[in-house]
Design goal:
Helix content is 72%, strand content 6%. The chain contains 8 helices and 3 strands. It has one domain.
Length: 215
């Protein structure tokens, strides 16, 4: 039984890893070496102003929990690293956050589901691992069952990420339209690099947080 559970758990995990490899990792690796003139906070302000959202508060945080909300009613947050970032990957992640903010104004329920999936993907496998280790220490849980249960929690987390990744894809599409139509960048090559990175970041979070940290 534990072998069947392990096999079924591996299917969504493998699907998430393959999708991330195909759509995100290679593109982001290349965009990290693309140097841009402005920083991430300036990009966010330009994108917000171009869509009539110049009064949106831009919050800069030193640290940010992986499952924390990065936008809300009238505000958008960036980490200090992203705010100061000057490469294509950093700008792509900023653009995706702005896109998610724009999408939350149109479809808040979709963005809320995506945030729940991210929190679930980070917290549930860790909680399961802690419980299983405790069960192993007290002699109530065999090692093979512990491995299968932990993998099952990762499989469930991957399912949640896969089912809600369309929200990120929509947000990346919105951000890309703003970048292209509003001519945020003076050079076409910079625009293309950031648009590609924005779309890549949409797929990057499809892998559960516990696995993503190990990659």
């Amino acid at each position: 039984m534990h072998r069947l559970l392990l096999f079924l758990s591996l299917l969504p995990l493998l699907a998430a890893l393959i999708l991330r490899k195909l759509h995100a990792d290679r593109i982001l690796k290349g965009s990290r070496v693309v140097a841009l003139s402005g920083d991430g906070s300036a990009l966010a302000q330009r994108m917000l102003s171009s869509m009539g959202q110049e009064h949106t508060e831009l919050r800069i945080k030193k640290r940010e929990w992986a499952g924390a909300a990065d936008s809300g009613d009238g505000w958008l947050s960036l980490t200090s690293e992203l705010a100061a970032g000057k490469n294509g990957a950093d700008h792509g992640q900023v653009a995706l956050r702005v896109g998610l903010y724009f999408l939350s104004l149109r479809d808040p329920a979709s963005v809320a589901r995506r945030r729940w999936a991210l929190r679930f993907g980070h917290a549930f496998p860790i909680f399961t691992l802690v419980v299983c280790v405790f069960g192993l220490c007290v002699g109530r849980l065999p090692v093979l069952w512990m491995v299968s249960i932990v993998m099952a929690s990762l499989g469930l987390a991957a399912c949640a990420q896969i089912l809600t990744v369309t929200t990120n894809i929509k947000a990346a599409g919105l951000a890309s339209v703003v970048l292209e139509k509003k001519r945020i960048y003076p050079r076409l090559s910079d625009e293309e690099s950031v648009v590609a990175a924005t779309r890549a970041w949409a797929w990057h979070s499809i892998v559960p947080g516990l696995i993503s940290r190990l990659m």
